[in-house]
What we know:
- The chain is α/β, with parallel strands linked by helices.
- It is built from twelve helices and twelve strands.
Amino acid sequence: MPALVGGGEKVGWRVGNPPQVGNLPHNMTRTVSIVGVGLIGGSFALALRKAGFSGRIIGVSSPQTVRAALEMGVIDDAQPLEPAAAVSDLIYLAQPIERIIQTLGVLDAHVRPGTLITDAGSTKRAIVDKAMHCVRRGRFVGGHPMAGKESRGVQEAEADLFRDRPYVLTGRDPELEEWIERIGARLVFLNAAEHDRLVALTSHVPQLISTALANLIGHEANAQKVAGPAAIDLTRLAASPYEIWRDIFATNAEAIDVALAGFIKKMEEIRSALASPRMEREFEVAREGAQALRSPGRLRKGDYE
């Protein structure tokens, strides 16, 4: 039976008695495979290099993407999934969510015992559940770097994309944790369900708010003539492609629905207080919340949320 890596939820595990890789020096990680060499995968590869990783980085992606990644020096080699997995010490899944789930269904047969597998998917319950049922030879820890851009592709990759950004892990693994700290990210540990509940509020609902506002403004013929920084800032996320969000909505619909209901309730409360002294208090609470989000010390490395 597989042994859990980390506590609480079944978030990562080992088979038998493989080497305790987390207690070994960095030079034991010789080969990393990036599956999905886009913005996030490419940035992770560049961040590893900047953090001192001197081993081999293999890219697993479309021919066009790996060609660009090779030309940019993001990866050292390009291979199909199976041979890349067979020689890797660390496999980083940076595909869309449904593709990650599909990859987890076939990956374990090709890895060496003890291979570290992690992902960068924007939701975690569906991915962690799939890994729990499919990963036996390797050891899996779910991950989510809270970083990105509206634009996609390896051409947008940058080594500092994760610096000073929260990076959620759903389990403990000393090797992975140390690399994430070395690329400058702030570690946060959450189980998969709590992660999905929180990002529904802090990431998924903001996207829907931006989308709704951009739609509303777009249907008002003269609105663009008077739109200023507020409208531009609040509709920035509306430029995100639906292909990214389709899998998020499909795998986190329940949590998004709860968070969206809470937002709608708050908007109704604000609507009813427009001409009331209560509105001043709404602004005070909102200002405190906004300041807390912008506080440099809001997270310490290793904080549990």
